[in-house]
What we know:
Blueprint: H1 8-14, E1 21-23, H2 39-44, E2 47-48, E3 53-60, E4 63-67, E5 70-74, E6 78-82, E7 88-89, E8 99-107, E9 110-119, E10 122-132, H3 144-147, H4 157-180, E11 188-189, H5 193-207, H6 214-221, H7 225-236, H8 240-257, H9 262-269, H10 274-289
Parallel strand pairs: 1-6, 10-11
Antiparallel strand pairs: 2-7, 3-6, 3-8, 4-5, 8-9, 9-10
Helix pairs in contact: 5-7, 5-8, 6-7, 9-10
Amino acid sequence: MENWLFTPEHIDVLLHPERWKLVTLGQPEPAQGRLPAGMRHWYAAHLQRHAHREVLVCLAGHGFYGLGDDLYRTSPGVVMVFGPMELHQGGYPRFLPPQEHLWISMLPDQFTARVLTIRGGRTKAHAATSVLFDADDVAFRITDRTLGTGAGTTPPAEARRARLFAAVAAMTATLLHRGCLPPPVTRTRLADPERVMASLMEHLRETAGRGDSLSSLARIAGYSQFHFLRLFKRITGHTVHHYVDQCRRQKVRQLLDANWSKTAISAELGFSTPQSFSRWFRHARGTEQG
């Protein structure tokens, strides 16, 4: 049966992890030599960061992608892992050649995958799917400790990279199997929406919405923005905005009880300035009292 998620060329890349090149913040060396005209300037104007983890697997085409202060070459088999709140590229410049990328967005017990075709800076989702797994299933876990950013003993770099390879390989193997199942009519095969929303709500409680936007939340849930808004309200009983504010207020109370300053809380919650946090805080307190 034809794989509805991947082409034969994609499958050849995903079935051979021994050919993959893993890229994480600062590793390996960034792209050397001449870059496309305007690439660094474009990248500086298209930075993003968010609280969830993401994985990019280049399936076809050649180009560049930004992570941190550097740009890295992308070609079939390049795997880039983005940790929480790590600065990386948002979107694609129109002057790069066509490419095809697999994007994996991760929640505590779910990941959503999208296969994108990139032409002239525009992206088109070829197919999408979401996978639910047990929160303690180590096969799919990419944690702060795996990335070497968590507290406690940090494993050697070789061990971290091996664990990252194993986690990405487990996810892509699951996606390859999913693509062999009978395709849905819409070519979008999503997991149980109640569990998806429960996973997303857990994510928001942990992060208090830091770095998230409506588009990023809809993307990691695996839905269009319009459908995501309706589904979130129907399942949770809250609007997305109200629930994020609720999570933020709870986080603020915890940090104030721990004697954090408002400036430190503002930075922790991802506000652009302490002043913007103060405006939100006054409004939030007024809403609670009202």
